[in-house]
Structure formats: C-alpha cells, structure tokens
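thought: fold this chain, then report.
action: predict
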Amino acid sequence: MARQGPLTTAIASLAAIALILLAYLLGHIASIHYTPLSPNETCRWFSEPSPPYLLLSNWSNMTIYVSTGYRVPSGMWGVWHVEEEPPSIVWLMYLDELLNDSITFYGLGGVKYASLTLNNSIIINGTLGWVQVYAPPYSNIILAIGYSRGNLSFIVEVHGNVTAVNSHELMVKVGNVTLTYYSGQPFRRLSYSTFEASSHGEPIYVEVSVNGGFINPQDALRLNGIRVGEWLASSIKPNLTGCLLYEYYLSLLLLKDDQNPVLGAFAASPEPIYLYAWVRDSSFAAIALQMAGHIRSALRYWRWMAEAQAPPGTWYTRYSFINGSPDLNYGIPEYDSIGLFQIGLWNLYELTHNKSLIMGLLPALNKSLNWEVSQISLGNGLLPEDLSIWEDLYAYNFWTQAIDLVGMYYSAKLLNDLGLNSTWLKPYVDALNSSIVKYFYSGGYFSRAATPTLMYVNGSEAYVLAPDYIYDSSTILPIALGFINPESPMALNSTRLTYRALWNPVVGGLARYSGDTYHYFNYLSDSTGPMPPWVITTMFLALYYEDLGNCTSALNLLKWAVEHSEHGLLPEAVDPNYGYPLPTTSPLTWSAAMYVIASLNLANCGNYRSVLNI
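observation:
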C-alpha cells in the first residue's frame, strides 16, 4: 500500500501529462533554451522513410533498443515490405548485461514516421496515435507514454522471476537486477510472463525502474528536459542557425545515445546489420564529441580503445556493442584504426592541453607507432594491405596509408609536446609519405588503391605496384587533415578530378567511388541505381572546402545533408535518382559525427590547419 500514493497522484494527472507531451511534440519546452527554431520555422527534409530501429541511453549505465515498427523497403523505391511486428522496446542493456524484457505497443495503426527528438526521446507516430519513449539522463527509469484514438495496449513480456504483482505494479528479478514496472492503468496478466496495460482514448504510460523506485511521470519528463537541455547547452555552439543548428544538436544526441555508456564504444548504427562498434566509425564519433566540448564521453572511448588494443599494437575491425569483445568472425584486417587513434589523441591534447590524460594512453600510442615502424621497414615503404574504409578491396589502400601517415605525423608532435623523443619517427614518416606519392598519384589524382600489376620493366615482365586509377572520395579527407597542403597543385588537381567523377548531378552529394554497387546489386538492394551519394563523403568535401576558405560551398553541403535526412537523422547514403535516404543503414553514427565536425570547423573556415585542431 505504501506505493499507492504516488501512483494515485500520477493517475489523476494523466491529462496534465498529455498537455506536457503536446508541448514537447510542438517543441515549445521552456527548460530547453537552446532550441534553434522559431515557432513557425520548419526544416526541409524527407518525410519518409523513417528509421526502423533506434537506440536511447540514460548516458550513465543503461541503453534501450527500440523497434519503431516502420515499414522497410526490401527493394527498389515503392516496393515495400510491411513489418509484421508492432513498435516495441526490444531489449534493455544495464551495465554489461543484456535484459530481454520487452514492451510492445499495440493500437497505433500504421506507423507514419519515427524519429529521435531534440528532447532526446523517441517518437513513434501512427495513423491512430503516438508513443514517446524516454530514458531521462542519469536516472534509473525508462518511461513510455502514448495516446490512441482507439485501444492502445502496452504488452510487457518479462524474462525473469516475477516476484510481485498488483494492479499497478509488477516486479521482476533478472539475475542481480530488479525491474519494477509501474502503470497508471491496471496490469492484466495474460500469461505467466506476459502482462497488459491498456487504455481507450486516454493517455497511458508504463514506467520501468531499474534497481530503484517510482518517479512521477511529470517529474520524469521535467527531469529529462532539464538534463538534456543542460547537456546541449554545454556543447560548443557552431556558427549555424535554424535547421542547420537543429541538425547539429540532434546529431550530438544521436552520438550520445549510440555510445555504450559503460564501455565508451559506439554502435555504427541501430540497424541490426551495423549494431557493432566499428573502431573507425567510433573514432570519428569520439572526435566529434570532444570537439563539441564533451571530453568525458570521448575519453571513455579512447580508454576503451587502449584496453582493446591487440598485442601487436593493432585493433580488430569491429567489436560487440554490448560487451566490447572482438568479433573474431569479422577478422578482416583494417589498419586505419591505428592512425585514427593517434589523430584522436592529438586532437584531445590540443583541446585540453592536459598531459596527464595523454600519459595514461601513451603505452597504447607507442605500441601503435612501433607496429607502423616495423611494417614500413619491410620493403616498399608502405603499411600492409588491408580492406580499409569500404571493406571491399584487399589492397594497398590510399585511405589507410594516408590516415596512418597523418597519425604518425601528429604523434611526433604530441611526443614533442610531452617532452619525449620523437626524432626516431621522422625517417619512417618521410618514407611513407614518399611511397604514397610514388604508388598512388598518377594522372593528376590519387587513386583508390595500389595493386600488383604485370608490367614490362627493363625489357622483362614483372609485377610492380601501380595505381588502380579508380576515383575515390576517401582520398579527400586525408588531404583535408593535412596529408599534403590542401592548397597545393597536387591536392587541388586530385580533388577537382575526384569531384567531377563522383558528384551526382541529379540529387547532389558525392559517391564513394566509381562503379560502387553496395546499395544497388548487393544484399541491401535499397537503391534505384549504382553510386549513391554518401553523407560522410560529402562531409569530406565540406571539410576540404573549409580548408580552402570556400565557406559558402561548405555551408551548402551541410544544407544538403540536412535536406536528405530522415526527420533530421542522417543516413549512410541517399538514392542517386530520387534523393531519399536509403533506410537499410540509417541513421549512421559516422554521418552524424562528420556533420558535427564539419559544422564546428566552419568557425575557422580558410585555415586548413583548423580541421581537428591540427
């Protein structure tokens, strides 16, 4: 009986909750003073599709996985597969434990759209009603609240020992975790492990408390608004307004929610095929957060990365998002993570000038450098072959070679600033730089890769390394990061020719490389043609424009990204003929990270050393 007091109060105030939620949906939240849109301003983006899956975190020790129930295309545009499953909270991760309790929402009708909102909640809008899901930062609760013109049912399915049940409360023990479910409507038991709370034409909520007690839903909403507002207000604000600034804040929230709050690693995407922590994608996410002023979030990742380092000084390609274990079945070699770790640490130092932070990561940095030196010494002055950024060509890839070169260069600067010897690195940096130019630059541009090619040398046949003469947009970012002077003739020519080959004249944006069929013929099959433009590659070009001082062009590319988003959530790629976001890999964490980085770098447009503060 002790808990009936607050529950009775909550039930009596359901109408007030509905009004609060309406205010949230309209964006008029007094506690969030950073809202960049005027009351009558709307953003231009695609009304469909919407992401089928999203992650939501309390930023402390808990993450939930939400299936939005949005129908997903299984082929060309217009050919839709309707999801059989309604929207649901699929699972809850607490600390390093995955709990398979779920809450399924019946009665919304067909899902029209779903998205992450600027108050860090997930909104699912159906033809009959809506549900909004919250995980208030640094709290121990999850709150789902909704409304339908028909009958709306929240079905709770538990996977533990049910220890207590009364009309408005359900307690479940799962290992060392106690989950307590509260509802303003009475629970009805459907089976031993299944319970229903339902309402017809009135608001309904279910609150889940993890190892704790009940919080009045109104207080939970207020707490969520305050803490989300404080976090976003503490972010470094870029020189943007309106929808571009809205996109910046929303991208920051996506990065924060896609980070495992305990480990520090980031999911590449909530989509099941990408629900892993790729080191490359995570590194850019950490860089974006630390550039935005969220040093602790980024530092948690760099420390995890140092702990995950393999004995030779390298990393596996991807790790479990749940527990951080390496995916040994995906053991393809990718060595760009080495340079990204080094670049990330230099950027962290430049932002904080905190030597003690770096000293704790120095052993991992030295191991990575020693591995690079040992490989460059072996013969052709390059690092080993790998599958690199796109994971579809085993070769000497320009991206890996150039990213690692930039990493080595800034590692030497970092060692110098720490008062440590770095002269031993110089001959290897010079050797790698010379080899990249020798093997990749020909015809006025840097090719995607160098491969053994049969040629006549001194009158006889021999296999020699030669460029593959394929244009690749990944050649642009290393130039923007300082691989060579972005204003040099070599950089200008290479970027100009790559742009001409890969820019989409119909919908805009930059494709990955010539002949790319990943979203077209491959198993994703959600594009109406080959060479779809990608958000990250278009942001590579935006950073290069910022190097050159072409601020207007950079700003236009940021606008392009916003206008090709899913209600502000940035996809991996867009359709090359119609421009809609390709839904099978959306939202993409790396896309959000690159948007944040390019947005912040606008403040220093025209100073090519400003990118990542290097």
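thought: worth noting. The first strand starts at residue 53 and ends at 57.
final: tokens above.
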